[in-house]
Write a structure and sequence with these properties.
The structure is a single chain. Helix content is 39%, strand content 14%. A hairpin with a 5-residue loop joins β1 and β2. A 6-stranded mixed β-sheet has the order 4-5-13-10-11-12, with helices on both faces. The protein has a 4-stranded parallel β-sheet with strand order 8-7-6-9. The chain has 17 helices and 13 strands.
Length: 474
């Protein structure tokens, strides 16, 4: 059942266009230091199979018994047609559900949309897609070269570290995992994940960008495997988001708009790359409109694309505290990839946009979505805020929008608590709306309970609930 096709792949530099073999771990171009993308040198051979036939192949694999094809690699030929079956890692990644917004929520906002809930991946975020790609390649390298000691490392605001630690601990020897976090900038829920998976968790003062500089230095001077989105195999794994979305809508995307939060710009890079591959193979009917979303507290990509095209210059920004912690990055590593792929996307008739939203809008949108039956994280709230903003600016019409909720809501429950209790630090600029705050209500006191018999307590508590909820007697 596993595909017999094997192609030759290469790294391609986004800066100088140099090409390098994949038989070693490369994160930047040895010639100029530019970031890399992976290229299938024999991609055109895939055109010998019609787009309709590819649809049927991928649809058939949804019911496969082949473990290597159960997850993100059911789109094997589009992703990494160099890996052997024994190297592919599957922990339940992929197949995240697309849940249409409830009628009440759609009516309230006047928008037609759905969330793709990436929090239902194994470590509860989309980063599992990338780690399945990165660790599968790493397993193949270990097998081919007989390596007996591999140290993986990543900088993280939470989700990357959780995914890296989970996949690393599953593979085990000879792989060991280290994660580097900005101290005090990761939620307790996210911090617990790499600790629970047994990774070495190290912290430094600062923000994600500071951690990223440290791990980049380590990757350049020591024998470590970098797992951030500079790792092109991670980007390749995250392409599966685009393939799954297209498959969910029977390969018809021309009337869709995809909203994706931009942090280190790896996910929007991957999604764009996947969409371009499907378009070139006639697997999809056309390219959807693509919207990147950034908080005004970390918006370098928005600042770049909001300039007139002929005068655009890129500048990193100093980030301010953001509830969308995974997007709190002032100098995205994958920005050069975005620039390159946007040009290709627009050349094939696609439309690319970036929307800026406030921290207030992010929190309001997350709470609103979850009060209508979703499990969206702050990044999911960021996407909904972006959709609302795009409508206000007249940048979206009748398209059906698919919003990327990158992680599970429980990872960011601390921000929800701050919203409900009105305890946000001033630097966030978030004031909860009174009609959206939800707090527990004590229905009967401990003192009163102690004064009553069990029967009296039960009856009085029930009467108090009936009064509080305005219940009618039978």
């Amino acid at each position: 059942m596993f595909p017999k096709v094997r192609h030759e792949m290469e790294y391609v530099c986004t800066k100088c266009s140099a090409r390098h073999g994949i038989d070693e771990l490369l994160y930047t171009c040895p010639d100029c230091g530019g970031v890399l993308l992976l290229n299938d040198k024999e991609f055109d051979k895939l055109k010998e199979t019609s787009g309709k036939e590819w649809q049927e192949i991928f649809d058939g694999r949804r019911a496969t018994d082949c473990k290597a094809l159960k997850g993100i690699f059911r789109f094997y030929e589009l992703m990494a047609p160099v890996l052997e079956e024994e190297d592919i890692l599957y922990l339940g990644d992929g197949h995240s559900p697309i849940v249409e917004a409830s009628k009440a929520l759609k009516d309230k906002l006047g928008l037609n949309f759905a969330f793709k809930h990436e929090g239902q991946n194994p470590s509860a975020s989309f980063k599992d897609r990338g780690m399945a790609g990165a660790f599968s390649y790493l397993k193949s390298m270990v097998r081919k070269h007989g390596w007996d000691n591999v140290l993986t490392i990543c900088a993280s605001t939470g989700d990357t570290s959780a995914a890296a630690a989970l996949y690393g601990s599953y593979v085990g020897d000879p792989i060991k995992t280290v994660v580097l976090l900005p101290e005090g900038k990761v939620t307790p829920q996210q911090l617990s994940q790499p600790l629970g998976s047994g990774a070495a968790v190290l912290q430094i003062p600062g923000v994600f960008d500071d951690c990223m500089k440290v791990v980049e230095y380590l990757a350049g001077h020591y024998r470590v495997a970098l797992l951030n989105s500079k790792n092109s195999w991670r980007i390749l794994g995250q392409e599966s988001y685009a393939y799954e979305t297209a498959q969910e809508y029977r390969w018809k995307l021309q009337d869709k708009a995809l909203f994706v939060p931009i942090g280190n710009a790896g996910n929007i890079t991957a999604i764009m790359s996947g969409l371009l591959k499907m378009k070139r193979l006639d697997i999809i009917d056309g390219l959807p409109r693509l919207f990147g979303v950034q908080s005004h507290h970390a918006d370098p990509v928005y600042q770049y694309y909001s300039q007139p095209e002929e005068n655009r210059t890129y500048h990193p920004v100093d980030v301010q505290p953001s509830v969308a912690q995974a997007a709190m990055i002032g100098n995205p590593v994958s920005f050069p990839r975005v620039q390159k792929l946007v040009r290709e996307y627009e050349a094939l008739g696609g439309d690319f946009n970036v929307v800026q939203v406030t921290e207030q809008a992010i929190m309001d949108a997350m709470i609103l979505a979850n009060m209508h039956g979703h499990i969206a994280c702050t990044q999911g709230g960021e996407c909904l805020a972006g959709l609302i903003r795009a409508k206000e600016e007249g940048r979206i019409g009748s398209e059906f929008a698919v919003l990327d909720a990158t992680a599970h809501a429980l990872k960011f429950s601390g921000f929800q608590d701050m919203y409900f209790q009105n305890t946000f630090p001033e630097c966030f600029g978030v004031t909860p709306k009174k009609d959206m705050r939800n707090l527990p209500h004590t229905i009967i006191s401990e003192e009163r309970r102690n004064a009553l018999s069990k029967e009296e307590f039960t009856e009085e508590a029930a009467h108090n609930i009936a009064k509080y909820m305005n219940l009618l007697e039978k």
